[in-house]
Amino acid sequence: MPSRAIIKIIQHRHFLTATPEKSVRAVAQHMKENGEGAVLVVSPEDGTLVGICTERDLAFKVLAEGLDAHTTPVRSVMTANPQSIGPDKPFGHALHLMYEGGFRHMPVVLEDGRPIGILSARDALGLEMFDFRRELEQREDLAVIL
To answer: 69-81, pLDDT tens digit by residue?
Structure first.
């Protein structure tokens, strides 16, 4: 259900982190080893979210630009200050933000900025997507009536 709290989706799920000075190669290798499509980049001082690096960032900003993955730090290619969401928000809200923003991954953070998980567009596959579409259509119908 799109109204389900995000915490219910991400609980019991691991996520990857890296610090900004890690090489792109090390980050990509970490992603490959864990079968993940994104890494949350966190401050080494306080663990707060400073960026996100996705497969798309690696392909478009490193490979396509001919950067050296061994010497390029992830801070050079990450998306800094990404849109994030709190764990108590409904999943449908996150889907809406991802759709509107044109991105596929969204960090889930606590009020102090520390990440506790990540949502992926893949989380919307299956029955939840059908429920979300139906709910959106109902809201649009109501908006027309009002």
So the answer is: 999 999 999 999 9
Distances (CA, A) of 33 to 64, 68, 118, 136: 22, 20, 17, 37
CA angle, 42 then 48 then 110, to 5°: 130
- Could you give the percent of the chain with pLDDT greater than 70? 92
Say what the pLDDT of residue 122 is: 83
Choosing among 3.10.580.10, 3.30.450.40, 3.40.50.300, 3.30.1330.60, the CATH entry for 6-145 is 3.10.580.10
Closest alpha carbon to 15 in 102, 108, 91 = 108
Q: How many residues does the chain have?
A: 146
The secondary structure element, H or E, covering residue 24 is helix 24-34
Measured CA angle at 22 (ends 20, 23), to 5 deg: 125
pTM tops 0.90, yes or no:
no
